Amino acid sequence: MIYNLRSFHFKWRLAPTLLLLGGILIVGISVSAKKFSNNYHVPLAPAHEEFFQTIKPYMGQCVLQYFEKRYPRFDAFDKTVVPYWEKTLFSSTSPEAESLRDLLQSYSLEPGDLVAIDALARTLYAEMDRGFDHGLHYGRAIAGVVLNRAHAVDLKKRGYQVFSMGLHKKFHPLKKTITNVVVARRQFSAWDGVIKGKYNPVLSHALCPPINSEIMSWKRFATQYKHIPKKKLMPSKNEVLHWNVALRIAFEAILDPDRFWANFSKLNKRELIAGQDAFPIYYYTSGYYTNGESKGKRVTLFAHRRDGAFKVVQGPAIGGRRDFDERLLRFWAPRNPL
């Protein structure tokens, strides 16, 4: 009886400590969950949410299955994604295709708008992918660069025509300026089939993103996974979240640009600048900087041009965040603006 009383007394004295530790654990879990949800939550306008859910199944469809050995060396978008949309929007006589065309008319949109959303989403996913784990501001920054380049091309600014040049069918009726900008050769490396004489593995990410966890994505075409059973190569929940975030950002950037640019702001000489004026940036690099030492890490194109024609610039606050990790994303500006 005495032993039981002492045991009870010991447990009673230990209870506050256990409650404190439990409270700390709950707070930590809630903070992590909030941070996790904020990294993947892209709210759209209520009027656009239903339309987004309707077109979502058509976006990011894998187009690599048409190639038995290698994906295209050049013009990958024109040879893969464009034929898919031509078949989906024009060649198909299925009820789904007809309803999709009717839906576009009801929203006063053109087929090229869907292609532009698809092209931008594929680009964001391939360029950033795991960067979305660090915050939405990484994906929004890349989309902002694309919109700035497209705006400069539309205005025919001197020297900015290079943003839409390349060996691709830039005058295709399904390809708007934004599409031309993201798939132009030697601009966004995700669409270059060959880099420094070697095939670019990131291209498969753009051509076959993980749209859901039940459909194989780019991993089934990657040589490093050829010995792994297909069941283990199914996209993870995190990979699918990355694609969904990229698609939502692309949707908002193209169909609701005012809402998209409302996330951008910066303080310039005590004056708050918001919107597109807060982000006059046309160049960025993504990857790891190693000061010339590769050692298994990715060395970006501009890494050896820091003291040359370009200079590093600081990005604005995007969605209230400006903590850009330079190993993931770095902004550049020409020393002598055009």
Number of strands: 8
**SSE run:** HHHHHHHEEHHHEEEEEE
Going across the major beta sheet, what is the strand order? 4-3-7
Reported for the largest beta sheet, the result is:
3 strands, antiparallel
Shape: globular
Contiguous uncertain segments of 5+ residues: 27-37, 288-304
What is the averaged pLDDT score? 78
Structural class: mainly alpha
Radius of gyration: 24 Å
Individual helix count: 10
As a percent range, the share of strand residues is 5-15%
Kindly, what is the distance between the CA atoms of the first and last residues, rounded to a whole number of angstroms? 89 Å
- Estimate the helix proportion, in percent: 40-55%
